[in-house]
Each structure stands twice: as C-alpha cells, then as structure tokens.
Specification:
alpha/beta, globular, 728 residues, six-stranded parallel β-sheet
C-alpha cells in the first residue's frame, strides 16, 4: 500500500505510515519533520524577512537509520565511515547532517586552549566531490543551516591557493577534486604546477563543467609558447620505492636520495575524451598493438588509470606505476577485467594468444606513456603521484585537516582516496559515500570493499613509522565496515523498478564493477517510465505537450530537465526546446528533478552491437524467450540485426558497463516521471525490447497522444528564479 511499510518489532507486527509531502496525485516523497529547536523558535519570532534576506535552512529529523550514521562512532570504538547506497537513498543528506552536527557541537562548546601551544584549538572539516554542481548544492545547504544557527550565511567566494593560507574562519571548506589537488599542490616546496612567489598559479587552470568528471581541468590555452616553465627542466623528487612506506606526512622521515625527472613541458591534461580522440587511434594502430583492435578505448583507459597508475601499490612506486609483472599478478578481484597471472605463475607462462590479457594492456600502457611524453601532456595520476611522493619527503605543511567527507567516492581512484587518508590528521574521522552503479567517470574502477584495504595500508604504515622502539604507541586506526542504505527517499517504485532492471544487467555481466546490495525500495507506487515510439522530432513534440501544441517553442517547467550525452548535444536540441533546462548526465549527478526527459541516449551512444547483450540476458536458458524474440525480430524488419542476442566477452564489452551506469544515473534523477525519446530505431531496439518484456515501462505512440495529458508543465517566473538560484 502506498505510504506504508511493514516492520517487525518485539515479535509483533506493526505498520508505519509515512504521509506524502503533498496531497496530490504526483507527490511521491514523504513529509519531513523538524525539531522545534531554539534556532527555529528564534527565526519564527524574529521580524519578518524581506525577499532579499536569505532564508535559513534547518536540519530535518532523520529516521533511525540515518540518525545512527550521523552520530556513529561518537562514544564507541572509533573508525571512519564507508556508506554505500543507490541513488536517492540519502547518502549526501547523511554526509551534510554529520558535518553539521560536528560543526555545531564544536562551536557550541566554544574554543578550548591547547595546553602545549597555548593557542585556541580548532576543528577543520573539508567536503570534497568531483561534481562542481553537487559541491555548490552541499555548500548552500550547509551555510543555510549556519545562517539559522549563528546568523551568518555567506560562504567564502574563493579560497587561497594553498592550505597553508586558510584561516580558521574559512572552514569548513567545500571543494571539487581539482580545487583539492591544486590547494594541496600549493603546500609543496616543489609543486607540480609552476607557482608565483606568493603561491598563486603562474597559469590559470580553467574551470567550469567538463565531461570528464574527476579529472583536473585543462590548462589555459592562452599561455605564451616562450614561457620559461614550458622550456626549462621541471625537477620532480621521488621517494625510492623500497623506503617510501616508511615516511610520514609530518616531515619526520630521514633524507632520501632524490631522482631528477626528465624535461617536462606540460601543456594539457589527458582526460578520456582527449585520449579517445587524439591518442587511441594512433596507439591502437601501432604495430605492436595489432591485437588491440577489438578493445574499447574506455577499457584500456580504465586499466591504466585505475590499476597500472591509479592503484594503491602504484602510488608507492618510484616510477609512479606498476611494473609489467606486478600488474600481471594483481589479484583478479582487484583488477577483474583482463586475465593476468597467478602468484605461482611466471612470465614464461604467458599465453601465445594475448587477446584479452593484461600483457597486451601493458604494451598499450607503454605506448600511451610514450605518446603522452611526445605531446608534452600529463594526466591526473601524474599529479597525484607527485603530490604523494613530495609529501613522503617533506611532510604536509598546511593547516591541519581534522575531518574529511568525500561524496561520489566512486569517481576517485585508489591513489586519490589514499591521498585523502594520508593527509587527514584523524584517520578515524573520514566519511566516504557513493554508489558504484553511478561510476560514470571514465577511467575509474572502484568498489567500496576495496576501500577498506586503504585503511589497512595506513595502519601498517603507521606501525612501520613508529617502529618497535618508539616510546609512544601509534594512534589506533580502525578498519571501517561498509554500511548500506536501501530506502529511497527521492522517487517511487515505478522508476526504481526500471532502474533495478539496469542494475540486474550490471550484476549479471559486470559483478566485480559494483557493490552488490539488497534491492532498494520506495515508499510509494508511481508511473513507470514512458518510452516514446516516434522517431520524428515533430511527432515527439506532440507527445510531450499533447495535442494542444500551437507554438514554435515548448514551455517546460522549472523542475523538468532534458538530459543529453554531452555539451554538443545541447546545441543540437531542436528549437522547440529553446526555453528548457538542459544538462548532461554528468552535470546532473547528485541533483534531482520532478521529470526527466532522456533525449537520444542510444542514438549518441558509443556502444553499437553491445546493446544486443541485453537480449542474451533475456533469453538465457529460456526457449520460450528465444521464440518470442525471434518473432519480434521478424516483425521489426527496420531494426536490422539489432534484435539478435550477442555473446558476451568481458574484455571486449567493457564499454557496455559504462553505458549501463550512464543509463542508471539518468533514470534515477527523476522524482516523478521519466520520458525516453530516441530517434535511432536500431540502436534503441534492444533496450526498448528489454524494458517492455520485463514490463518495466509504458509505451506512448503518436496515435495515443490525444488521450494523454501534456508532459511539459509550465511554471511561473518565481519558480524559475528559485531554480536558477538553486543551480547558481
């Protein structure tokens, strides 16, 4: 029943009622309750606010599960927190709630005095995510609560270029991954990026939305080709790999022999788009990579940046990457996509046919590094390794960071996550949350279970630093367990069932790429996603606005969004959509809307035949399903061979994993409705058929438009202004 959930308590059955937030047919979120605190009372009894005054935000009362995570490890044995849950299960709300609870508790007690230094104690928190829009939303929410607490509401407009120059009053910080790495780089005596005497960057790092979330932005194109930094040698000091694990970030490590790097002329960052379009064609066509033709660029990019260069072990290597043998012998659970060697095997045991093997991938990695040097480029793994190596030698010299919260953790490599743990002063005060079904940052392969090993590595490192003769025992570092969330607060079961259908495919084909969780549940039933059968844009417009379409432009509401593949797709949208809110899937991560219109997702997909894999999932061990599929294929002549099942190959079809995660992320942005339009009949055919056979969607054709209510819902200027300020 809608709004009800069965629970079992004290051996007696009871029924909990969750009232909807609004008494309307399209309200599928539950009512939030707030505590009548002194801050709320003060606001309610204060003088009336003008429209220009900021409205404070007050924390709502979490449910028991959320509250336990917000308050976790306050009294009992401490450890950091790992939290995984599908989209809409409240991960970010818990992160903000925990952050706010600690901030309020600390500032309510007043500043204490350090007995050794005589200075006021402080508590420095940092929130980091790869998504710029999500960062802004979290910062706005936190400062809204801060306004209700102490009357201050304006966050800092910009931060200094280094953690050395951050004042206590500027905390907590809300940073993107790029900002985090650049500010950490600014604390080094020999930074990766050239700096002025005041610590500022010699060359501005461009900001804004980027299709490769989780990578550093490209350097400003307006540099002078004669700039000294492009022509002079850049010296990179690295800790030898056999002693690197013995250094601590407090600078107490002994002197190490330093290695001088070759001349580097870093002109731009290699992200996945650059790799795919500018490097991969040359690498794949090289003579020694003849077997690479069947590999996807995304699969190779992931192996390089998640395992060869982005793993925890690679971070501690002098060269910044694993050797061929080390990569070949990585455990299958850690690098599941390609076949390596067991511990008992040697290099002589490599097969003659190298297709689908890590040995071939390593050849491609070496070609990638050669091409990168030729182009004078760098990648984010180069930056992270430089930071780690310098910190091992000189220690962290910025202001202490006591607590770190990382959202969308799945967008970070092991090496990047290891850096968070290394820099944070309290190894038991980190908070990592995310969902591996939403890993759509190309080049990242991550599971939360793997994150636990990073804390074990830090535990071992601290013991090595202290040594058996050290007078003080090392601080205890707890190994966190993975906490899970299964209740969805964003959307209803109609959308969740379709999203679960995508997760079923991921679990079947790529089980090692996600964390397997219990199926999430919503509080309400709701409409299934709508598939528009028409391919003509004009007909699709009629389906969207109903038969009342009389104008040349469709007026969408402020809480509706059109999701597209990339920035170019925005510009290619029909003129009908000139007044709508359009975003890429990456830009929409962490956000939610009433209605999501997914536009040409399959038509603009890099996957082709890979979509036919869903048919092999449907027909496996079922003669009846095979018969039904064959009948449908005979009827749908215009779909060509796209309704034929395709045999799965893990190393050849890695792109399909990325596509499924993009689809899942897009679908789960919606609170009320999902509408899917695609003009490519062939490419959409397998997934449309899959959704229909599992009864996860409803079909809307042009002939039924007269009896269908308009999907585009107009809203007034005030709602648009509110949404604009929300996304500002």
């Amino acid at each position: 029943q809608d709004g009800y959930r069965d629970v079992h308590e004290n051996e007696s059955d009871c029924l909990l009622f969750y009232p909807p937030a609004l008494l309307s047919a399209d309200s599928f979120t539950i009512l939030k309750f707030y505590s009548l605190s002194s801050e709320v009372l003060s606001f309610l009894t204060s003088k009336s606010l003008s429209h220009s005054d900021p409205v404070p935000e007050f924390p709502f009362i979490p449910d028991d599960r959320e509250d336990s995570l917000i308050c976790l490890n306050r009294e009992e044995e401490k450890s950091s927190i790992l939290l995984v849950g599908r989209s809409g299960t409240g991960k970010t709300s818990i992160a903000v709630g925990r952050m706010w609870s600690k901030y309020k508790s600390w500032h309510s007690q007043g500043s204490s005095i350090d007995s050794q230094t005589g200075l006021p104690n402080s508590y420095h928190q940092i929130f980091v995510t790869a998504n710029r829009v999500l960062r802004d939303q979290v910062r706005k929410s936190f400062y809204g609560m801060k306004h209700g607490f102490d009357g201050s509401s304006k966050p800092p407009t910009e931060y200094p270029s280094s953690f050395k120059e951050i004042a206590d009053c500027q905390f907590p910080l809300f940073l993107t991954q790029s900002e985090w790495l650049l500010m950490l780089d600014g604390t080094l005596s020999e930074p990766f990026f050239p700096r002025n005497l005041d610590g500022s960057l010699v060359h501005r790092i461009a900001g804004g939305f980027h299709e490769e979330v989780g990578m550093l932005d490209t350097l400003d194109d307006e540099f002078d080709e004669d700039d000294d930094w492009l022509q002079t040698e850049v010296e990179v000091e690295l800790r030898p790999s056999d002693t690197s694990s013995g250094a601590d970030f407090d600078g107490s490590a002994g002197e190490a022999k330093l290695l001088r790097g070759a001349s580097k002329t870093f002109r731009c960052e290699v992200d996945f788009n650059y790799f795919m379009h500018s490097m991969w064609p040359r690498i794949a066509a090289s003579q020694r990579a003849m077997d690479a033709r069947q590999l996807s660029a995304s699969a190779v990019f992931q192996e390089v940046h998640s395992y060869i260069k982005g793993s925890r072990m690679a971070l501690e290597k002098q060269a910044g990457h694993l050797s061929r043998e080390e990569y070949l012998k990585l455990p299958t659970k850690m690098a599941p996509n390609f076949k390596g060697l067991s511990v008992a095997e040697s290099m002589e045991d490599l097969p003659g046919d190298r297709r689908g093997t890590r040995d071939l991938i390593y050849d491609l990695f070496e070609a990638y590094e050669t091409e990168k040097r030729r182009l004078g480029a760098y990648d984010v793994s180069d930056v992270v390794h430089h930071l780690w190596s310098r910190l091992q030698i000189e220690g962290y010299s910025g202001v202490p960071i006591h607590s770190m919260l990382v959202d969308e953790t799945q967008d970070f490599t092991q090496a990047e996550l290891r850096l968070f743990i290394g820099v944070c002063a309290d190894k038991n005060d980190l908070f990592f949350c995310g969902d591996t079904c939403q890993t759509i940052a190309s080049g990242v392969g991550f599971r939360f279970e793997d994150l636990k090993s990073l804390f074990k590595a830090e535990q071992d490192r601290q013991k090595l630093i202290q040594g058996p003769c050290h007078s003080q025992p090392p601080a205890s570092i707890g190994i966190p367990r993975v906490n899970t969330l299964t209740l969805n607060y964003r959307t209803h079961n109609g959308i969740l069932s379709a999203a679960a259908g995508v997760v079923d495919l991921l679990e079947s084909f790529f089980p090692a790429s996600i964390d397997i969780l219990p199926r999430e549940q919503g509080f309400f039933c709701g409409p299934k996603p709508v598939l528009l059968t028409e391919t003509n844009v004009d007909d699709a417009a009629v389906l969207i606005v109903g038969s009342e379409k009389q104008t040349s432009q469709i007026e969408f509401g402020a809480h509706q969004v059109i999701l597209v593949r990339n920035q170019e797709s925005k510009n290619a949208l029909p003129d009908y959509f000139g007044g709508c809110l359009a975003m890429t899937i990456l830009e929409s991560k962490g956000l939610e809307f009433d209605d999501v219109f997914l536009w040409n997702f399959f038509a603009e997909s890099r996957a082709e035949a890979e979509w036919r894999l869903v048919l092999s999932f449907l027909v496996q061990d079922s003669e009846d399903e095979q018969k039904v599929l064959e009948e449908e294929r005979q009827r749908s002549r215009d779909c060509g061979g796209m309704l034929r099942a395709l045999e799965f190959s893990e190393h050849a079809h890695q792109l399909f994993c990325e596509e499924l995660k993009n689809l899942y992320t897009a679908i789960t942005r919606a609170r009320v409705r999902v509408i899917i339009y695609d003009e490519d009949v062939k490419k959409r055919a397998p997934m449309f058929y899959y959704f229909q056979r599992r009864e996860l969607v409803q079909i809307l054709s042009f002939f039924a438009a007269d009896n269908h209510a308009p999907m585009a819902v107009q809203t007034g200027p005030e709602e648009w202004l509110k949404q604009g300020m929300n996304l500002k």
